């Protein structure tokens, strides 16, 4: 009887076995599940790139080359990154109607956003470059509008005007109006420097700086924002203001001078 009682299981033995089983199951899941997820992500990315290559071959290769190396009709896309593709194709500048224009205008996008993402993934696979920014990077949360205005006036107003209304450049080129432009596309333009615009990488303008500038543009172009100086005259700056001054200011002075001269002549006659 003593031997039988000695071999009897401890009351906690079943609980210990259960805990060990759970621990083993959790360990095996931790080892294999991330690998499966990473493999699934890699497969999905590979399919996205493959679809992007098909779109590229049909719509882009004739100008940019079959491998993105560029031709006489289009620059190389190796190393431009996904952000450049998202900007150029997302704003309708690409595909271009003609390669002879001084500057490509924005127009309705030809591709859907899903197709643009596929094209961007393929071009990004050709060489490392700026990635498409996230909403956290260009969203208004945490932005300093006053700092953005200062940065915009120092770096951008020379071409885009102090409220982003755009302006003329040389040889038929121009700085486009930034009103109603998607904040993501503004961020990408600063990051990649499309066409005549210089690029502003994070070493020149940090992510926070870009966020501040975008917030400033959103504020000054808001329908709720009033012009502190009164009549904004389109927000085009010294050209429209100078023209207004010449026409109405100088014109008014001439009318006053004529009126004074007429009154003086009439007073002398009497």
From TrEMBL:
It catalyses: a quinol + 2 Fe(III)-[cytochrome c](out) = a quinone + 2 Fe(II)-[cytochrome c](out) + 2 H(+)(out). Heme c 1 binds at residues 60, 63-64. Its main location: membrane. GO terms for molecular function: heme binding; iron ion binding; quinol-cytochrome-c reductase activity. It comes from Streptomyces viridosporus (strain ATCC 14672 / DSM 40746 / JCM 4963 / KCTC 9882 / NRRL B-12104 / FH 1290). The keyword Lipid metabolism does not apply. InterPro entries: bc1_cytC-su (IPR009152), Cyt_c-like_dom (IPR009056), Cyt_c-like_dom_sf (IPR036909), Cytochrome_c_Oxidase_Subunit (IPR050597). The lineage of its organism: Bacteria, Bacillati, Actinomycetota, Actinomycetes, Kitasatosporales. Residues 1-30 form the signal peptide. The keyword Cell wall biogenesis/degradation does not apply. Binds 2 heme c groups covalently per subunit. Keywords: Cell membrane, Electron transport, Heme, Iron, Membrane, Metal-binding, Repeat, Respiratory chain, Signal, Translocase, Transmembrane, Transmembrane helix, Transport. It is found in: Cell membrane. It is a multi-pass membrane protein. It comes from the Bacteria. This is Cytochrome bc1 complex cytochrome c subunit. Heme c 2 binds at residues 156, 159-160. Residues 47-127, 143-221 form the Cytochrome c domain. Pfam families: Cytochrome_CBB3. The chain crosses the membrane at residues 243-262. Its EC number is 7.1.1.8. The cytochrome bc1 complex is composed of a cytochrome b (QcrB), the Rieske iron-sulfur protein (QcrA) and a diheme cytochrome c (QcrC) subunit. One of its GO terms (cellular component) is plasma membrane.
